[in-house]
Amino acid sequence: MELQVEPGVEEFIRKEHRLLIDGEWVEAASGRTFETINPATEEHLANVAWGEAEDVDRAVRAARRAFADDSPWRRMSLSDRGRLIYRISELIEEHADEFAMLETLDNGKPFAVAKAADVALAADLFRYMAGWPTKIEGNTIPVSAVATGGEFLGMTLKEPVGVVGQIIPWNFPLLMAAWKLGPVLAAGCTVVLKPAEQTPLSALRLGELLLEAGLPDGVVNIVTGFGDAGAALAAHDDVDKVAFTGSTEVGKLIVKAAAGNLKKVTLELGGKSPNVVFKDADLEVAISGAANGIFFNHGQCCNAGSRLFVEREVYDEVVEGVAERAKNIRLGSGLDPETEMGPLISDEQFEKVLGYIEQGREAGAETYVGGGRAGSRGYFVEPTILTNTSPEMSVVREEIFGPVVVAIPFSDPEELVAEANDTRYGLAAGVFTRDISKAYRTAKRLRAGTVWINCYHVFDAALPFGGYKESGWGREMGHDVLENYLETKSVVTAI
Ligand code: NDP
Questions:
Q1: Would residue 298 be called left, alpha or beta, if left means φ above 0 and alpha means ψ between -120 and 50 degrees?
Q2: In the prediction, which pLDDT does 78 show?
Q3: Cβ atoms within 10 Å, residue 156
Q4: Got the DSSP string for 113-172?
Q5: How confident is the model at residue 447 (pLDDT cuts 50, 70, 90)?
Q6: In Å, how far are 9, 19, 94, 173, 451 from 13, measured between CA atoms?
Q7: Whose CA is nearest to atom 12 of ligand 1?
Q8: Which residue's CA is minimally distant from atom 18 of ligand 1?
Q9: Which atom of ligand 1 is nearest the CA belonging to 51?
């Protein structure tokens, strides 16, 4: 039986969603709204304020005021800042069911997955970040002063970079808001957040809870938009730094737009991650890891293990094992507790994913399992394995962002590493083997920001995540992420 939507959640969804600017919920300057849909039913879900450049500008000005030296935010003690961030994690946990339901309706993912993964990790991210404000430290540095002579005391201060623009995607809406907002708050910056147009609801609900937690006005501003809000934020001259998660193509546009005032940029972009199974692996573990690597979140993960390399001797067994898993995945509404995989996010993604499968077929790839639409309503795509591919095919080279994996046999571990690295991306990789030396050697040679050994999709607030090559600039999470939001100031005192 399908889960019922609680009246409180229903009421939240149905209201006219506004922009959060300077602590107030306001209409877009144009008065316009756009619609979101439930991807499982293709039906209208919510009406959301259509923020545009003028709204982005209002929000940036509010963020700038909130960043003033004498603002409540800048004067808040570091201990209180940490306490406030901790309170946000508690509020997310207190509202875990509500957030999971919003993600299910807005994004399509199964409720249980949203609760156990998205919501739990989002709360944990804020909990982790709550410890940082009191621990962000500079250094004392010995100064030789060879040119000037004399005696000096050198030290560095770590200071917030200023007003930040953040553009987040639809695949993990609440979690991506947490990944972005947690470090911004820990570092003491202020922010304008632009949620994905497909999935704005959880970020808007989080905005309400940020105010409830006591965040001063203007520290976090949320501008929902559809078409030009992101570009306006990336180009705004009074934004000191922009952070984006999404496609490599838009990432490159952001870099160009950011050049106007040379704002700092961090990017978490696409991937075509290799997942490697050696013949000496525990094949049960490897098959689960390969299936989970690609099918988790319907394949809508930047780090999806979308190229499965299997040592030739065990290729048939592994591909058959993953195919068995694929055939048994229950597709359906995220409200059905039996559902393991929901729909893709949108008509656009649905067409894109099916289009790639078709391109693969036309180029000579074989559909080992899946390969088509599931059902007749909602954006459901069957978990798909393509075999008989060749390195130049688009299904091997490009990010599909759906439940589609190419399975490729290999014989020579040397060639495997070269082939696995033969991609413009470098976000993640998996290695399955019982030989720890082989695992470690392979992990070192794979050009990727994360390598999972005998596991896949293991994330932690303390572990940095981000890409080599065209998968991005900078890291999310861990203490590395704080550097994205801090400036280093050297202070030299003559003594
Ligand atoms: P995009 O990555 O193309 O980004 C869309 C977002 O970027 C929107 O919020 C949009 O805001 C903003 N944006 C668009 N143009 C600009 C610009 N010139 N400057 C600044 N911001 C801009 O996402 P899509 O949803 O279109 O997905 C396309 C592909 O991206 C997917 O198929 C997938 O391959 C990849 N992707 C990767 C993700 C990841 O986690 N790395 C997540 C999601 C998608 P506005 O509406 O205001 O224009």
A1: left
A2: 98
A3: 14
A4: HIIIIIIHHHHHHHHHHHTSGGG----EEE---TTT-S-EEEEEEEEE--EEEEE--SSS
A5: very high
A6: 6, 15, 19, 15, 39
A7: 230
A8: 231
A9: 47
Query: What's the first-to-final CA gap in the chain, in angstroms?
Result: 75
Choice from 48, 52, 250 to test ligand 1 binding pocket (greatest atom count within 8 A of CB): 250
What pLDDT sits at residue 345?
98
Take atom 21 of ligand 1 and give the residue whose Cα is closest.
230
Catalytic residue of the set 98, 301, 302, 311: 302
> In angstroms, rounded to a whole number, what is the distance separating the alpha carbons of residues 190 and 208?
16
Is 268 annotated in the active site? Answer: yes
DSSP assignment string, 377-420? SSS-B--EEEES--TTSHHHHS---SSEEEEEEES-HHHHHHHH
52, 268, 340, 399: the active-site residue: 268
Chain segment 42-74, per-residue pLDDT in tens? 999 999 999 999 999 999 999 999 999 999 999
pLDDT tens per residue, range 336-367: 999 999 999 999 999 999 999 999 999 999 99
User: Could you report the per-residue pLDDT of 327-340, keeping only the tens digit for each?
Assistant: 999 999 999 999 99
Which atom of ligand 1 is closest in space to residue 197's alpha carbon?
Answer: 46
Residue 165 — very low, low, confident or very high, per pLDDT cuts 50/70/90? very high
CA-based nearest residue to 202, from 13, 51, 22: 13
pLDDT (mean) for 293-318: 98
29, two tokens: 């300057």
pTM of the full predicted structure? 0.98
Reference 198, options 225, 228, 223; nearest CA is 225
The reported pLDDT for the residue numbered 288 is: 98
Residues with CB under 6 A from ligand 1: 167, 169, 171, 194, 196-197, 225-231, 234, 245-247, 250, 253-254, 257, 268-270, 302, 349, 352, 399, 401
Name the closest-CA residue to atom 10, ligand 1.
230
Q: Which atom of ligand 1 has the smallest separation from the CA of 352? A: 32
Percent of all residues in the chain with a pLDDT value above 70, rounded to a whole number: 100
Mean pLDDT, residues 439-453:
98
